[in-house]
Task: inverse folding
């Protein structure tokens, strides 16, 4: 049996949550709502995060365009994704939602732009 | 000289200014002008590339630039005019706005109503009195954020962060993702000034230690930062001798508080509030100068942009009613709002019971971390609300909604007190 103490990030309340894991069952205590239970279960089985960063733009009015993983990715893949994001570059113009990297680091999740960058001089 | 005239002039094209403009247009004002000193609309959201914005407003989780783009699209759709690279240098109580720009030099604009939406800025190193040299490598967290996210520059490799405000926490994660080593986040107070979920997602996820009741007592390095000394502080917030620890680093980020940017407001002779560092306002979000309204971080520092948009929408709607002469007649019945015992301030600071909307949202912050405490409201000494809160923290804004019908049960009401109570 394994016990883990977490803080729920579902809302600003930040409930301290205890998760007890058996071979088959996961019990959550300390949460004050259903969201806390869902978060805690996911956090101990398959924790995921949205990753945000920025990518260099060539020929744009800004030097960088902000990006995010279109969906949440496994926590363990964050730095693999970042390595691809950091070596990427795009040509202006870029629009919100444009796919910058497909299937980033084998997660099956794309990196998409979160800002519009027109052509111009940075 | 022929003076330019506009019904509503909005100072600042960030989240507050944009939401105020859209609301004023929806209330029927055609002649609106937004003045923005930067080269694009969106304000600070342009550099806040992380997600977590818009859960209240749009019911989805957006990044800062995406949140801004939604409001910019509304402004464009409504064809509301705005001027970029245009800096307001003065406002007076007659609502004459003096602006400067490269294209037009200095101009004066007569506004029917002014909406102050200038936002806030970071408390700088100079306000902290940290001993030591003044080498390169010391940045406010927001400056580092701009350098990395907008200008694409590298800020540093080994980082210490002083202050656990949200921007500092966000930057701890951001710099880690970019390959820097964030060694520690030190916080003077015994609690963090940031949102709890940011501590989990930005520090705990990456194993970055948070040292509460600690501060920087020395900065080393002459040309560039080479290290800092951290010490624990006592309840008097003074360093405890013998607790010093050395950290080698090339970068020190400061996330030690935000200050509403109110030089223009003071210049207009508006009555200021010492706790919020913003103007005092009534329930219409109108300052002591008639026709001058305020909203967003210039009024008081918010935790979530969603509340800024909500507040700015109200300011825009009320400014519209003012210029359209739609405000109802009748003598004002001002009621003073007071913050006591654990509550630091309220916004608004007064309510006009005669002309108030059906509901008024009163926002406030608490002075310390409290558990299982009540937030109480007293009408002239009589307790009318008493609500238990599991957790209250200074980093998180709270609100109480007052209803006109409840106030009207007290026809001679003079004062409303907001306080925390143990039982």
Result:
């Amino acid at each position: 049996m394994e016990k883990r103490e977490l803080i729920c990030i579902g809302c600003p309340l930040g409930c301290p949550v205890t998760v007890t894991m058996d071979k088959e069952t996961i019990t959550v205590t300390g949460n004050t709502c259903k969201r806390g239970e869902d978060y805690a279960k996911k956090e101990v089985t398959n924790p995921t995060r949205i990753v945000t960063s920025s990518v260099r733009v060539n020929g744009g009015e800004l030097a960088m365009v902000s990006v995010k993983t279109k969906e949440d990715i496994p926590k363990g893949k964050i730095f693999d994704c970042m390595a691809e994001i950091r070596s990427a570059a795009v040509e202006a113009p870029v629009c919100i939602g444009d796919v910058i990297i497909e299937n980033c680091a084998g997660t099956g999740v794309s990196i998409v732009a979160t800002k519009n960058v027109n052509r111009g001089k940075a | 000289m022929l003076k330019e005239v506009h019904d509503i002039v909005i100072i600042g094209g960030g989240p507050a200014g944009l939401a105020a403009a859209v609301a004023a247009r929806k209330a029927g004002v055609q002649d609106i002008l937004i003045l923005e000193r930067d080269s694009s609309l969106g304000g600070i959201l342009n550099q806040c590339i992380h997600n977590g914005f818009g859960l209240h407003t749009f019911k989805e989780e957006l990044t800062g630039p995406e949140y801004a783009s939604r409001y910019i699209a509304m402004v464009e759709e409504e064809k509301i005019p705005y001027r970029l690279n245009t800096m307001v240098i003065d406002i007076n109580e007659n609502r004459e706005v003096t602006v400067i720009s490269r294209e037009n030099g200095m101009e004066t604009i007569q506004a029917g109503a002014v909406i102050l939406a200038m936002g806030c800025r970071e408390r700088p190193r100079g306000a902290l009195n940290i001993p030591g040299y003044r080498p390169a490598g010391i940045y406010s967290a927001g400056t580092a954020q701009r350098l990395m996210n907008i200008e694409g520059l590298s800020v540093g490799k080994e980082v210490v962060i002083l202050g656990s405000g949200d921007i500092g926490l966000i930057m701890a994660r951001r710099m880690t993702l970019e390959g820097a080593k964030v060694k520690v986040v030190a916080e003077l107070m015994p609690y963090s000034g940031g949102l709890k979920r940011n501590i989990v997602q930005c520090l705990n996820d990456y194993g970055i230690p948070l040292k509460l009741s600690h501060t920087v007592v020395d900065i080393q390095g002459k040309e560039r930062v080479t290290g800092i000394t951290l010490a624990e502080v006592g309840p008097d917030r003074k360093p405890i001798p013998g607790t010093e620890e050395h950290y080698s680093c090339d970068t020190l980020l400061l996330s030690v508080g935000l200050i509403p940017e109110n030089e223009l407001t003071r210049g207009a002779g508006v009555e200021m509030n010492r706790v919020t560092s913003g103007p005092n306002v009534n329930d219409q979000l109108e300052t002591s100068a008639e026709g001058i309204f305020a909203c967003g971080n210039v009024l008081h520092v918010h935790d979530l942009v969603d509340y800024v948009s909500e507040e700015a929408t109200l300011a825009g709607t009320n400014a519209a009613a003012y210029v359209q002469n739609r405000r109802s007649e009748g003598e004002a019945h001002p009621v003073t709002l007071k913050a006591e015992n654990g509550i630091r301030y309220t916004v608004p600071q007064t309510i006009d019971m005669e002309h108030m909307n059906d509901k008024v949202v009163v926002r406030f912050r608490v002075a310390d971390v409290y558990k299982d405490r009540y937030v109480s409201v007293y009408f002239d000494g009589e307790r009318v609300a008493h609500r238990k809160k599991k957790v209250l923290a200074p980093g998180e804004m709270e609100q109480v909604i007052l209803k006109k019908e409840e106030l009207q049960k007290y026809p001679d009401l003079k004062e409303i007190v907001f306080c925390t109570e143990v039982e």
